[in-house]
C-alpha cells in the first residue's frame, strides 16, 4: 500500500499529521507490518515528537534557530548558497541534521507510537510551502 500526503506549511514550525496517517491505515485495512514515511524535499524533515504540550514544539523550533541561524546572521557569513533567501541554506543544514524518513511499526492496524508521540513535518523555511510525504505500508507475511 502506498500513498502521498500533501501538507501545507505556514512557514517554519512543526506540523502534526498523525491523524491523517492513522486514517489512511484504517481506510486501507492495515493490520500488522511496517510503515515508512519519506519527505520528498531538501529543506524540511520528519520527526516523531511529543504532541501533548505545545511548548515542546516552541522549544524545539527555538533550539534549531539558535543552532543554525539564518544566513544573514554574522556567525553564518561563511555560507555560499544564499541566493534563495537567508533561510534556505540553514533549512538544508537542519534537514541534514534531522530525519527525512521514519519507520513505524503497525500492530492490529494501529501505529505503535507512545502515548504522547505524534508524527510531524518540520518546516525549516520561513515562507509557506506545499510538502509531499510518501507513505508505504508493508504487511508482515
Tell me what the structure shows:
- By secondary structure, this protein is of the alpha+beta class.
- The chain is built from 3 helices and 8 strands.
- It has helices at residues 18-27, 54-67, 88-97, and strands spanning 2-8, 13-16, 33-39, 44-50, 101-107, 110-111, 117-123, 130-139.
- The strands form 2 sheets. It has a 5-stranded antiparallel β-sheet with strand order 1-8-3-5-6, covered by helices on one side. The chain has a 3-stranded antiparallel β-sheet with strand order 2-7-4.
- Strand 5 (101-107) and strand 6 form a beta hairpin.
- The longest helix has 14 residues, at 54-67.
- The radius of gyration is 16 Å and the shape is elongated.
- 23% of the residues are buried.
Concise structural overview:
By secondary structure, the protein is an alpha+beta fold. Helix content is 24%, strand content 36%.
Discrete helix count: 3
Q: Output the radius of gyration.
A: 16 Å
User: Order of strands across the widest beta sheet?
Assistant: 1-8-3-5-6
SSE string, helix = H, strand = E?
EEHEEHHEEEE
Kindly state the number of beta strands.
8
**Portion in strands:** 35-45%
What class, by secondary structure content? Answer: alpha+beta
Helix content: 10-25%
Net shape = elongated
Average predicted local confidence, pLDDT: 97
Largest sheet: 5 strands, antiparallel
Low-confidence stretches: none
